[in-house]
Amino acid sequence: MSSNTGAVEISWFGALCDDDYEFLGVSEPHLQSSWSHCSTIVRTADELGFDNVLLPSGYDLGMDTTSFAAAIATHTEQIQLLAAVRMGEMWLPQLARQLATIDQMANGRLTINIISSDIPGAPLASEPRYQRTREWMHVLRELLNGNPVDFQGEFVNLQVEPPRMRTVSGKCPPFYFGGFSPAAKDTAAEYADVFLTWPDTVAGVAATIEDMSVRAESFDRTLNYGLRAHVIVRETEAEAREAATRLLSKLDDSEGEKIRQKSLDTASAGVARQNELRDAAEDDGFVEENLWTGVGRARSGAGAAIVGDPDQVAAKLRAYQDVGVGAFILSGYTHTAEARLFAEHVLSKMDHGPLFENSST
Predict the structure, then answer these.
(1) pLDDT tens digits, residue range 64-90?
(2) pLDDT tens-digit profile of 125-148?
(3) 247, 219 contact by CB (below 8 A)
(4) Which residues form the domain of 291?
(5) Structural domain total, the chain
(6) What per-residue confidence (pLDDT) applies to 6?
(7) pLDDT digits (tens, 9 = 90+) for 94-133
């Protein structure tokens, strides 16, 4: 079994996609995505000592990621920026130049979350979509590594010199990538640096890592592994469970369904697995010790939270670490308040630091 015994990367979530609530499913204007709100979340995570922050991408749901990443780079000091980029959405040479520029603005703190879901208004079946993603990942890495490109594929036909603007390291920042269909897993095995999985039981995460390790080995590669999950930590387990109950206390299930359907990935294999976990949970929403599936009632994608007192949450993270997880991307509602609670109660208990100190692969 794969394991990770060193420091882990502990990241927070930038909530650029209107995904912040006091009560899940109840939208409040002051918690919707805006420069003021989201920059406060990221600056807070930076000040609290988180290693990285995911800046997600959603067309219908929020702000433009590259624009936000460029701006927040100048308002943060230490935290790395995990900017989500949808493959196929932008012209590759321009995207490479933009990302290199952001990395310069962030003094080498850029990392890249590869997104393979549909482009708004241009749906594409899974197999060709992942073929497009593979071609984009290959060419984008070449350009960011400063190499000329002469590539003819199904989706990319490009002969171009790399942009003069280079990253601080001179190399492509690491690619973080998640997906659960066979095509997604093979794409990650061949081209990603970090494979991201959504919440699952510890045994489920272990099985995913074992599967991905075999797939990566077939390409003569090794991967790092990350877990994207929510967290609710309080001084006692009872208080944490009360906070989880309160979070759902005003949820209308029909509104929750509308929220889930807004995402472009609602039919994905990963979302299907989150639905399975929720269906398998007990009446209180817990599918195993300290893993609560209630968040998925009003959220597509990562649909479960680690819930408990500080020792329980730290122990759960270490259980995932023991089966091979080297990075955590965490979030909580509301994001600024929960970041403070997690930092106060758990972050100091963990041996943590960036996976990629120099943002190079």
Answers:
(1) 999 999 999 999 999 999 999 999 999
(2) 989 999 999 999 999 999 999 999
(3) no
(4) 9-349
(5) 1
(6) 82
(7) 999 999 999 999 999 999 999 998 888 888 998 999 999 9
| Residue whose tokens read 């594929």 | 153
Q: Is residue 359 part of a domain?
A: no
* Residues comprising the chain, all counted: 361
Using one digit for the tens of pLDDT, what is the confidence trace for 161-203?
Answer: 999 999 999 999 999 999 999 999 999 999 999 999 999 999 9
312: which 2 tokens? 């329980």
- 126 domain residue, yes or no: yes
Structure tokens at 277: 């976990």
Domain holding 257: CATH number?
Answer: 3.20.20.30
Q: What are phi and psi of 180, to 5 degrees?
A: -125, -5
Looking at the whole model, is its pTM more than 0.90? yes
Residue 272 lies in a domain: yes
In a domain, 356, yes or no: no
